């Protein structure tokens, strides 16, 4: 049986898993869960998606790898509504959904679990939602994969939520440790983006663009650019 190969983005998501009972919401093809089970990194997983064809693909992949069906369950439904407290889920993965969609899913559930998130867009909106609803962001990193930038971060509920400034929300602390090659690319990408529009955006938007350029300049200095 061929081993599961994950993209750079999906591998970073999988590497954040610490718990043993996992739910992947918006699981699509089920690759991350299959990888975790094949490598004995978790004990049990729920693959859930609002799309019936997607959960069918996930089920087919799990069966293809001969994974004991006592170790997984397939559920079709909306967000976290397919998960109950009786499932005793440690961690929830939500990868590839929009940031505002993820916020809505979280707001509609009572599930208390560590969140491993990779929004496709509106990641700052999602971070702001999390910290205003009792979560600390304990991991936050940018990854460059297949010509796109992705933000992978982990949120944990806490009675003592720390305050995050804009710089921390845009440039998570874990980007500045170890290999920062992808961060350098990301900073250059943002700098080009905002420099190209600063003189042409409406005046009421220009201050926001100039503010972003200040944050980018701070990030450049932190990595020694």
Give the key terms.
7-stranded mixed sheet; alpha/beta; globular; single chain; 225 residues
Report on the architecture of this protein.
By secondary structure, the protein is α/β, with parallel strands linked by helices. Helix content is 40%, strand content 21%. It has eight helices and seven strands; from the N terminus they run αβαβαββαβαββααα. The chain has helices spanning 8-15, 31-38, 52-64, 99-107, 123-131, 166-170, 181-197, 203-222, and strands spanning 21-25, 44-49, 72-76, 91-95, 114-118, 135-145, 148-157. It has a seven-stranded mixed beta sheet, with helices on both faces. It is globular and about 55 Å long. The model has no long low-confidence stretch (mean pLDDT 94).
